[in-house]
Amino acid sequence: MAGMYCASRSLCVFFVCTVVILSLTGGSDAIVVSTTYGDVRGSEFLTSSVVGNAVFDCVFTFKGIPYAAPPVGDLRWRPPQDPASWTGIRDVTEFGSRCPQVEYTLDQPIYNELFAYRSNSSSEDCLFLNVYTPNVSATANLPVMVWIHGGGWYNGAADTYPAEIPTSLHNVVMVTINYRLGNLGFLPTLDDDAPGNFGVLDAIKSLEWVRDNIRNFGGDPDRVTIFGESAGGYTVSLLVMSPMATGLFHRAISQSGVAGVSVTQKGDITQTQNLAVSLNCSTDSYDDMMTCLRGLPTEVFPSLMVPFAVIDGRFLLQAPWDLMNHKFINRVDYLLGTNNDEVGFELAAEFPFIDADGMTRAEFENNLPFLLQQVVDQYLVGSVDMILQPAIDQYLDPDMADDPIYLRDQFQQLLMDAFFTSQTVMMAKAESGMLAVAWEASSRVYQYELQHRASVFSFRPPYVGVDHGDDLFFLFGLPLLRDDKGSNWKYSFTQEERDLSLDMMAYWVNFAANG
Fold first, then answer.
1. Per-residue DSSP letters for 353-413?
2. Catalytic annotation on 230?
3. Neighbouring C-beta atoms of residue 27, cutoff 10 Å
């Protein structure tokens, strides 16, 4: 078929009605698209009563498309493989399973709009992606944006983010992906072809699928932007650093997360052996240990762990800090930034010693070493003892060191700088410092800081600014959601905040379209 598109509301009423009639009377063939593994049938999302200011009357959605084989059995802790082909037309109107993970209960209704699972199940058979497009035509050549979700590399899913909203406002194809998490996604092994980094290798596999298939969904495979937040931002930055990802994307966006991951050298399987011992698998023989681990049920693995990126000589040639220092990274346009209070509320909830009354000097000094260990783990060699006192000296004014509010604010500033700001600045400098070559223009690099605290977060303490994850509410258009009747706004964002959301979506899409 030649293709089909959702009508812009700037077009005449007659034409809009014609498109709707085709959608309703054309049956399943109206939104069937071919992929390299078989044909898929998607569905139509009507925007008029859901999204305020929507430009298109509908968006075509294709949910739960497999981009890799299920990583189960002997494929557990293996590089992602091609999915099996199918005959006939595969229905892709429901989300595929999310990857096994630690799951949380959300305590605020507005959080459900971004982080509540819309998939019906959790399974290791989870390597699916979702496509959202206003134009199913192989000649549309729309910019493509591939979203990599956050969650610390141990939770999160592609299905929770309402990509229908920005797609209904812009000529863009959006793709959201699942990838393996936690122990199942980042456990080090001794296998030469992939001694770790499986979750990030999944992202590469999804980008190969995009390269080979996205044109049939209206996308331009030569204008692919990867973007992600938190651990998704980490993944984006690692893909910018990896020779394995060269050419699979052309622009990158990291939100509140750049390369701040713990690293280990290829061959260090201490973490794997510790897990094996805890699960009663013998570590006397590596092969027997892995056979035992691969034979265990899924539910024993989604426990909290510190995910490590493995410097394996293929995906990562050096530690991320070294790659940034040496400017040994892919040349891409890059947009990256942070919020102005990343450790203000949600992340600070992990620290019960932080509250409205501040913190004591003893709490500051006693808790800092454990947290700085996560900074030290980003290097192959290093010691908390080497940086503990210099960090304290840098952030504490001796004349203020007994003020509990000052101590709290400086503690949170230190953590934000250590885990977010410093890496973001360094990555921006590395990419912008790449020398131009005759066959390739210099990278265009933009750094931002989000400073507007949304009015809907009145349940937070007044001292909290723009918290970790707040950017996502604007980026995915939550201020523009209509209520169940479609006549009023669903949430009490201000008009200024709706304008900010429109601006932010436009900035991101414009960057994806032209840099």
1. T-BTTB--HHHHHHHHHHHHHHHHTTSSS--HHHHHHHHHHHH--GGGTT-HHHHHHHHHH
2. yes
3. 10
Distance CA 241, CA 316 (A): 7
Of the residues 23, 119, 206, 230, only one is catalytic, namely: 230
Residue 222 lies in a domain: yes
Residue type, 344: G
Closest CA to 209 of 86, 67, 395: 67
Give the per-residue pLDDT at 370: 93
The answer to whether residue 468 is catalytic is: yes
Which CA distances in Å does 213 have to 39, 131, 170, 365?
Answer: 11, 11, 21, 53
DSSP 416-458: HIIIIIHHHHHHHHHHHTPPPBTTBPPPPEEEEEE----TT-T
Catalytic residue, from 113, 124, 342, 363: name it. 342
Q: Which residues contact 113 (CB under 8 A, 6 or more apart)?
A: 162, 473, 478, 481
d(CA 320, CA 260): 8
Written as six digits, the tokens of 249 are: 């994307």
Among candidate residues 286, 275, 71, the one with its CA nearest the CA of residue 191: 286
The CATH number assigned to the domain holding 468 equals 3.40.50.1820
Question: Is residue 285 in a domain?
Answer: no
pLDDT averaged over 10-residue windows placed end to end, the chain, 515 residues: 69 32 35 97 94 95 98 97 98 98 89 95 98 97 98 96 97 98 97 94 98 98 98 98 97 96 94 96 97 97 88 95 92 97 93 92 95 90 91 95 95 96 96 76 93 96 96 98 92 98 98 96
Q: How many helices (H) and strands (E) does the chain have?
A: 15, 16
User: In a 3-state reduction of DSSP, which class is residue 273?
Assistant: helix
Residue 214 lies in a domain: yes
- Residue in 242, 431, 468, 501 annotated catalytic: 468
pTM of the entire structure? 0.94
Domain total for the chain? Answer: 1
Tokens of 276: 């094996």
What pLDDT does 15 receive?
30
Residues 199 and 240: their CA atoms lie apart, in Å, by: 15
> pLDDT per residue over 256-271, tens digit each?
999 989 999 999 999 9
- The C-alpha atoms of residue 57 and residue 12 are separated, in whole angstroms, by 12
